[in-house]
């Protein structure tokens, strides 16, 4: 019974106290006063709330400066300023994708993220350096945290000849998702850009996740083109638009309804600097919504710690979520929403699900988000992989 664990007295999603029996890395039973099989390990839950593993559904593991000397940021205000500066500074600052992604992934695991979707740069200056580095981290940490790679043309796809071929190679090498970026504002060829992105998706049988920073009417136009392709190619449930700042503009209700009908999902970081997608409207329309910490301590900005409970709080603050059920929605966006977008097959708190759990002391789910206790026990398939913010593996 070495693979059997009985967790006594926890409160799944803040509900009544129950025991959770885990066998072979999956939840075998949830109920009151479960018997401990002979030889089973027993963990005292102490009345803590149990939630499924947090899902970091949008980050950039290859870019973090965690563990490196402080970077003095004097970069210009435009998006392209940040993109060009970052590309130049990768080698100068020794931002080794494997080492840095190990550092960030383990920090995120300490906070409770058991699943991470990472956009990884593919460009003609650095080739497959980022993909290879983060893929090595994915393999090294596969028993601790699940990492999914998005091949991401951060510097542009069509404006930098050779990038499309590198994207094709990255997907053939094991990247799970096709990335895209601002079809109008960066590539200045929305049809060509989206034809290329969705063409790669069709060729490799992969889903799509497109950064869309474009504001207002420009962003809405790009969104409409994405919706058209999603419908035409039968890709409902396999397309994510990240950031989607255009949805924060007035009079976007019809576009939100079209997004829902097409089965396109939205990722929001609830950025404080831009209009953001209104999560209550998205939920009412039935749009799957997830969240992520985006860049963490990188050349774009100094902020971020990888804590998806904190991100749930930021989603709540940015969307004026005040009622307890609304605050809980913020946390579900950072758990179940991300799981749906990543198409995790056995995710959740039910019998048969993978035993990816976070145990946190809190009165209610809403207070869990507000108080953000660091006293978290993190389990990956029934094995404790982090305690009190400290993962079982040390970062390099």
Biggest β-sheet, characterized?
Answer: 9 strands, mixed
CATH architecture heading of the largest domain? Alpha-Beta Barrel
What is the N-to-C succession of helices and strands?
EEEEEEHHEHEHEHEHEHEHEHHEHEEE
Uncertain stretches:
none
Based on Cα principal axes, name the global outline. globular
Average pLDDT score:
97
CATH homologous group name of the largest domain: Metal-dependent hydrolases
The number of helices is 11
Please tell me how large the radius of gyration is. 21 Å
- What oligomeric assembly is this protein in? single chain
In words, what does this structure look like?
The protein is an alpha/beta fold. The protein has two domains: 4-52 and 348-387, Urease, subunit C, domain 1 (Roll); 54-341, Alpha-Beta Barrel (TIM Barrel), CATH 3.20.20.140. It has eleven helices and 17 strands. Strands 1, 2, 3, 4, 5, 14, 15, 16 and 17 form a nine-stranded mixed beta sheet that branches. Strands 6-7-8-9-10-11-12-13 form an eight-stranded parallel beta sheet. Strand 16 (383-387) and strand 17 form a beta hairpin. Helix 2 (97-111) packs across helix 3 (129-140) and helix 5 (190-204) packs parallel to helix 6 (216-232). The chain starts with a strand and ends in a 5-residue tail after the last strand.
């Amino acid at each position: 019974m070495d693979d059997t664990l009985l967790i006594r007295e926890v409160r799944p999603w803040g509900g009544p106290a129950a025991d959770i029996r885990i066998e072979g890395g999956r939840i075998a039973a949830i109920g009151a006063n479960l018997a401990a099989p002979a030889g089973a390990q027993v963990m005292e839950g102490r009345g803590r709330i149990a939630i499924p593993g947090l899902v970091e559904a949008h980050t950039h593991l290859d870019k973090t400066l965690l563990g490196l000397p402080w970077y003095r940021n004097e970069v210009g205000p435009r998006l392209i300023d940040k993109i060009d500066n970052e590309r130049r500074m990768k080698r100068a600052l020794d931002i080794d994708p494997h080492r840095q992604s190990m550092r960030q992934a383990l920090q995120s695991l300490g906070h409770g993220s058991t699943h991470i979707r990472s956009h990884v740069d593919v460009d003609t200056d650095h080739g497959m350096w980022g993909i290879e580095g983060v893929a090595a981290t994915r393999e090294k940490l596969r028993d601790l945290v699940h990492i999914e790679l998005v091949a991401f043309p951060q510097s542009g796809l069509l404006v930098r000849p050779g990038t499309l071929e590198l994207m094709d190679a990255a997907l053939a090498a094991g990247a799970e998702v096709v990335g895209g970026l601002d079809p109008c504002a960066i590539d200045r060829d929305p049809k060509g850009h989206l034809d290329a992105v969705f063409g790669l998706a069709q060729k490799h049988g992969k889903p799509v996740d497109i950064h869309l920073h474009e504001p207002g009417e420009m962003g809405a136009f790009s969104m409409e083109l994405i919706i058209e392709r999603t419908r035409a190619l039968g890709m409902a449930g396999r397309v994510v638009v990240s950031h989607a700042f255009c949805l924060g503009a007035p009079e976007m209700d019809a576009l939100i309804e079209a997004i829902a009908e097409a089965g396109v999902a939205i990722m929001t970081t609830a950025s404080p600097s831009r209009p953001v997608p209104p999560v209550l409207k998205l939920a009412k329309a039935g749009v799957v919504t997830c969240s992520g910490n985006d860049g963490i301590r990188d050349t774009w900005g100094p902020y971020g710690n990888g804590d998806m409970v904190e991100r749930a709080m930021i989603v709540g603050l940015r969307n004026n979520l005040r009622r307890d059920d609304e605050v809980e929605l913020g946390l579900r966006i950072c758990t179940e929403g991300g799981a749906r977008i990543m198409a995790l097959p056995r995710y959740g708190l039910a019998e048969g699900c993978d035993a990816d759990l976070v145990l946190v002391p809190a009165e209610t789910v809403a207070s869990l988000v507000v108080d953000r206790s660091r006293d978290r026990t993190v389990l990956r398939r029934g094995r404790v992989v982090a305690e009190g913010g400290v993962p079982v593996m040390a970062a390099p």
